[in-house]
Design brief:
Radius of gyration: 12 Å
Order of helices and strands: EEEEEE
Number of helices: 0
Distance between the termini: 6 Å
Length: 71
């Protein structure tokens, strides 16, 4: 799973945001450009949460295809 975390109001990237696949130990902090890559995620439905101090926690759901990637 790969993506980028930005602010809603200014579309600026956010660094040091905790990105986590719910129900697993897979987690990572975003880089300075707001980007992240989560590896080792099994195919199937997933819920990804993002959280940073001073911002509201947000979740998104998706499906990781077999042999594919979710962006």
């Amino acid at each position: 799973i790969r993506g980028r975390v930005v602010t809603v109001s200014t579309n600026q990237p956010l660094a040091d945001v905790q990105v986590r696949v719910e129900g697993t130990t897979v987690a990572r902090a975003t880089e300075a450009d707001g980007r992240y890559v989560l590896t080792g995620v099994a195919a199937g439905p997933v819920t990804v949460s993002v959280q940073r101090i001073g911002y509201e926690r947000t979740t998104r759901t998706g499906v990781v295809p077999a042999g594919g990637a979710l962006t």
